[in-house]
Amino acid sequence: MSFSRNVLVACASLALVATALAAQDATGSPAQTPPPALNGYQPRWWKEAVVYQVYPRSFKDTNGDGIGDLKGITSELDYIQHLGVNVIWLSPHYDSPNADNGYDIRNYRKVMTEFGTMADFDELLKGIKQRNMKLVLDLVVNHSSDEHAWFVESRKSKDNPYRNYYIWRPAKNGKEPNNWTSFFSGSAWKLDPTTGEYYLHLFAEKQPDLNWDNPKVRHEVYDLMKFWLDKGVDGFRMDVIPFVSKDPAFPDFPANFNGRAEYIYAAGPHMHEYLQEMNREVLSKYDVMTVGEAFGVTLQETPLLVDERRHELNMIFNFDAVRLDQQNGRWRDWTLPELKAIYTRQDRGLDAHSWNTVFLSNHDNPRIVSAFGNDSAAYRVPSAKVLATMLLTLKGTPFVYQGDELGMTDYPFKSIEDFDDIAVKNGWKEYVLTRRVSAEDFLANMRKTSRDNARTPMQWDNSPNAGFTTAAKPWLAVNSNYPEVNARQAGEDPNSIYHYYRRLIDLRRRTPALVYGNYKDVDPAHPKVFAYTRTLGKDAYLVVLNFSSDAISYSLPAGLKAGRLETANLGNSEENTTTLHLKAWDGRVYRLAVSPSRAGIN
Ligand code: TEU
Ligand code: CA
């Protein structure tokens, strides 16, 4: 481990501030005065972090049952640490019947049997701490499993003490209480024969929504959060957290409904009140990081969730960028200016009291290189590196999804049997079996959009099943490109995507301007080149990314000059110039050679 990494790990914020103070400006002279309070931002470890998401089911299997497990993660902590990330977000590891791969929790204080035991969890946490990394858990409390003891009780009778832990309503005119739909097809209401009432499930039938208007439910949640925080975990990613408050009148979708149910579900009356209570009761007592999966929250509403003066969450996931290639559940072509406009909008929409995230993939979305790069043989490697450059130099805490650092690609699904995801299987029943959509059309769309693309097993080496498991059949098939695309190969090749991620993560973690610096898109309309600056006082960087497979002679906008090259994905050496000869999927990070004020960037 390098000296600078040690310092960063031990004392991340202070180290970055110190680096900022010692920063040289682009002309090489030492900066005289410290940048004004890091552009107005309070330094925080979670702003400086790079997060790596682990989907335990697909990470590494150690007991040969074809399912990843906690021991598998522990066995690869050196791999994760070597990448340079310092926070791991673990997708749900709790006891679950797996209707939705762990996002349906049966017992919040127990480890999923397939994943191991509580002792395995403690061992994993210890290994993470020993390596000076942090662990963020997935908090899935908008809903539980229908097999959770609370729901087992709740459905027994109308006067059961747990009845009010969930959302029960009688039929309306002999039908569902309203016309809300589930994200996994069909009505969001399920009639339960025992009491003749309906319960609400915004996701699968086996994921009944908890009733947050019941203070007992909220305190159960706070208690289970404390249970894990007292073990030493460092925060939570909060699953669909804006959905926890619902309008108890349950009106139908409005007449002008645009089909985006998440915007209705996220608009409940008490969300902020509940999050402030959670902060008071739990979060304020620990030094933790929180990130809300803010499905259905607009940019305008975002500061209400993340402005630090409101004491709710640290940051949220905004879906505008990651879902740019989808509309109403269907794949669509997207353009680079659209993507750039999203980042500018987000930057303008949040001031120095708020903080953002940067991500273009996770366990719910296709692979980053397939969706936003070019996964053909010729361009998979350079385009994955361009995307890495962007993720790690934009403003906001970057989230890297497991396998993206290897350039793992979407899976060539051929038939419905190749899929596992409940969203796909229910969609097949709703659209194909009813003949509303042809099988070919449905499969073509799922090949591009399915969550299973991201869930195929991690590719470790070129042994059978990519070294993920010794079982003959993993729970989901391994991508057949594993002989070329795997961690062992990537480790041995100094030009691999993996080593490029390492360099970029290292650059970000020692460069305050890439964390706190102003963001400016210097050429928003260019259809193929994404060029932007990150500026902190006199410390200024210029990022130039060719998002196309064309060679482009690119003249920088007036006033800008590329100075010293910090990193380039194609081994280029052009420096101190105003014209760049970009190759296909070329990506470069420069020092800006012109004072930012003269170039009008500040
Ligand atoms: O996902 C929230 C969510 O609604 C979408 O990202 C969803 O995956 C997609 O629209 C389905 O078509 C979170 C989790 O990340 C996801 O894995 C869970 O399935 C879901 O909540 C329910 O817990
Ligand atoms: Ca296993």
Explain this structure.
Helix 14 (380-393) packs parallel to helix 18 (497-509). Helices cover 28% and strands 16% of the residues. It starts with a helix and ends in a 10-residue tail after the last strand. The strands form 6 sheets. The protein has an 8-stranded parallel β-sheet. A 5-stranded antiparallel β-sheet has the order 16-17-18-22-20. A 3-stranded antiparallel β-sheet has the order 6-8-7, with no helix packed on it. The protein is α/β, with parallel strands linked by helices. The chain is built from 19 helices and 22 strands. The model is unreliable at 1-15 and 17-31 (pLDDT under 50). The structure holds 1-O-alpha-D-glucopyranosyl-D-fructose (TEU) and calcium ion. 1-O-alpha-D-glucopyranosyl-D-fructose is lined by residues 100, 103, 140, 183, 203, 239-240, 293, 295, 363-364, 423.
List the helices and strands and how they pair.
Layout: H1 3-10, H2 12-21, H3 45-48, E1 51-54, H4 70-75, H5 77-83, E2 87-90, E3 94-95, E4 107-111, H6 118-130, E5 134-139, H7 149-154, E6 168-169, E7 189-192, E8 197-200, H8 215-229, E9 235-238, H9 261-265, H10 271-281, E10 289-293, H11 302-306, E11 315-317, E12 326-327, E13 330-331, H12 336-349, E14 357-358, H13 368-372, H14 380-393, E15 397-401, H15 422-432, H16 439-449, H17 487-492, H18 497-509, H19 512-516, E16 518-521, E17 529-536, E18 539-546, E19 552-555, E20 562-568, E21 579-582, E22 587-592
Parallel strand pairs: 1-2, 1-15, 2-5, 5-9, 9-10, 10-11, 14-15
Antiparallel strand pairs: 3-4, 6-8, 7-8, 12-13, 16-17, 17-18, 18-22, 19-21, 20-22
Helix pairs in contact: 1-2, 14-18
Bound molecules: 1-O-alpha-D-glucopyranosyl-D-fructose and calcium ion.
